Amino acid sequence: MSLTQAFFAIIRRDLVLALRRRSEIANPLLFFVLVITLFPLGIGAEPRLLQAIAPGVIWVSALLAAMLSLDSLFRSDFDDGSLEQILLSPHPTSVLVLGKIIAHWLVTGLPLLVVAPLLAVFLGMPNNSLGILLLTLLLGTPVLSLIGAIGVALTVGLRRGGMILSLLVLPLYVPVLIFAGNAVQMASSGLPVDAQINILISILLMALVLAPLPVAAALKMSIN
Amino acid sequence: MIPKLQGIGLSCIRDDRLLFEQLAFEVLSGQILLLEGKNGSGKTSLLRIVCGFRQPDSGEIRWCGDAVNDSQFYAQMAYVGHLDGVKRELSVLENLKIAQSLNATGQYSINEALCKVNLAGYDDVLVQALSAGQKRRLSLARLLITANVLWILDEPFTSLDKQGIALIETLMTEHCANGGMIVLTSHHDIDLNDVDVLRINLS
Question: Which of A33, A118, B12, B188 shows the greatest Cβ crowding within 10 Å of its Cβ?
Answer without folding.
Answer: B12
